[in-house]
Amino acid sequence: xxxxxxxxxxxxxxxxxxxxxxxxxxxxxxxxxxxxxxxxxxxxxxxxxxxxxxxxxxxxxxxxxxxxxxxxxxxxxxxxxxxxxxxxxxxxxxxxxxxxxxxxxxxxxxxxxxxxxxxxxxxxxxxxxxxxxxxxxxxxxxxxxxxxxxxxxxxxxxxxxxxxxxxxxxxxxxxxxxxxxxxxxxxxxxxxxxxxxxxxxxxxxxxxxxxxxxxxxxxxxxxxxxxxxxxxxxxxxxxxxxxxxxxxxxxxxxxxxxxxxxxxxxxxxxxxxxxxxxxxxxxxxxxxxxxxxxxxxxxxxxxxxxxxxxxxxxxxxxxxxxxxxxxxxxxxxxxxxxxxxxxxxxxxxxxxxxxxxxxxxxxxxxxxxxxxxxxxxxxxxxxxxxxxxxxxxxxxxxxxxxxx
Length: 404
Known about the structure:
Distance between the termini: 62 Å
Structural class: mainly alpha
Radius of gyration: 24 Å
Number of helices: 20
Number of strands: 7
Largest sheet: 5 strands, antiparallel
Low-confidence stretches: 1-18, 72-78
Strand order of the largest sheet: 4-6-7-3-5
Strand content: 5-15%
């Protein structure tokens, strides 16, 4: 009797929409069998892996009936100031480990660079950033994550495909269900691939006849390299160049659409920290100032934006690119980070909404102070007679509110 009452108590603790939806979830999953069958999933695998499958309503990025739409979980890349995200002590630690792994996997890394043109240090840096070189463990059951997102997520169609492909991975025996763990968004393996990315970019580098991004370091690193190559990686081109910006720098130029040869930026006063060759000075690049006029400035190449397709955050790309560099040279950024605080997501959303209302911002209202937001903010500061520093601060937000 006590067990029954405990179970009843747990059931009643669930929100009503969730309790009512579970039966519908089961029907939803069952209805996906024809798509799974068309993708080559066996009936036995489908039945085994979906039996007893339940949604996880605690995941972010869901649109549940009767509840406000939940946004994606606040990722460190978007809520931390750069100094806290690209932390020097962490970079030193990961770079030292990366140097050791460069020796351990030298043959695989040389083959990766030969086949895909991506430096071994770059894929090691991705591995280090994503899963701490395999030491961190993913908390979620991948199949449950993609099933829930397909059912009540904000990107249902995308995750419907991810669910079918997750079943296909299990059907092929690439990984056991027990080890098929992921982030809340369904990214899995040492270098964090969605199931669709596994099929698009997976590589069997160790030659054992299967693509194993969960246990085989050569496979995981080669797959990361192939993903970068497939997305346009240019061999022999750096990811970015740190520069010293002139005192009168126009931070509103910091958008991908404004591209100039590095030599032109240099003649305009943006001096590269490291010597650049004539060929490098001819390369087109965009200005990036993650803290507006404060902190380091960079000239970003096409490869910067390739890494950004792996993870959309500018800080993620800076972390990975800088970590890759630090495996070869001990030099930190020449200009230190200086911002002390980052606005809350809700405050950045309010700022984006105001900028959009003025016609200065046309991107997503997502609470992330990326390139487009910082540039639009600089345009607003200029029009309002404020200091143009392209950095979202509480003072600028208050000025916006006062001007309404």
